[in-house]
Amino acid sequence: MRIVLVGPPGAGKGTQAAYLAENLSIPHISTGDLFRANISQGTDLGRQAKSYMDAGELVPDEVTIGMAKDRMERPDATGGFLLDGFPRNVSQAEALDAMLKSEGMTLDAVLDLEVPEDEVVKRIAGRRICRNDSSHVFHVTYSPPAQEGVCDVCGGDLYQRDDDSETTVRKRLEVYHTQTEPIIDYYRGQGLVVTISALGKVTEVTQRAMAALQ
């Protein structure tokens, strides 16, 4: 099964992608992982991406597309894949269609995780990270520490990352609405979009997604 996963920041795409890929026995292909792997391995595409990132510029679509193409051509992806973070805009979606068509393949579904904007802001802006260990994550509403501002695990200070502030989250949502959301209409025109609510427990959302994909 070949699936594209879309949704706003804070929709839980990474979490759901991991569960869905495991349930469907297909690789989870994340743009973030692709960038990190290519840069750490010093591939030609990784060097190109790093040069743009070091200059504070956006990585061009052709570099991202090249990384995705290389990953999708590996043996473990012959039976399908779940794309998370790619395509990010309509031009990338068109390039993905052309890439698949050249291999005689098509997408099976585009899973759209729907979350109200205020809930996205609440989820991200309420996050607090431990200064001693960034894997210790709390939430002021959903998983608060026993003592405000103190990590339950190691006693370290909890803080809000700059990119988790409400102002930054709303800017990220603007970018999503402008750049990424249009691909939902693009794929809806192909009859591929399946929209589900991403509210509730992680397991509930996974069950909802599996039922919708079947």
UniProtKB/TrEMBL annotation:
InterPro entries (alphabetical): Adenyl_kin_sub (IPR006259), Adenylat/UMP-CMP_kin (IPR000850), Adenylat_kinase_CS (IPR033690), Adenylate_kinase_lid-dom (IPR007862), P-loop_NTPase (IPR027417)
Domain Adenylate kinase active site lid: 127-163
Binding residue positions for AMP: T31, R36, E57, L58, V59, G85, F86, P87, R88, Q92, R161, R172
Biological-process GO terms, alphabetical: AMP salvage
Organism: Streptomyces clavuligerus
Oligomer and partners: Monomer.
Family statement: Belongs to the adenylate kinase family.
UniProt-annotated stretches for the region NMP: 30-59
Database matches in NCBIfam families: adk (TIGR01351), PRK00279.1-2 (NF001380), PRK00279.1-3 (NF001381), PRK14527.1 (NF011100)
Name of the protein described by the UniProt record: Adenylate kinase
Record-linked PANTHER family: NUCLEOTIDE KINASE (PTHR23359)
E.C. number(s) listed in UniProt: 2.7.4.3
Pathway the protein acts in: Purine metabolism; AMP biosynthesis via salvage pathway; AMP from ADP: step 1/1
Primary site of residence: cytoplasm
Record text about domains: Consists of three domains, a large central CORE domain and two small peripheral domains, NMPbind and LID, which undergo movements during catalysis. The LID domain closes over the site of phosphoryl transfer upon ATP binding. Assembling and dissambling the active center during each catalytic cycle provides an effective means to prevent ATP hydrolysis.
Subcellular location: Cytoplasm
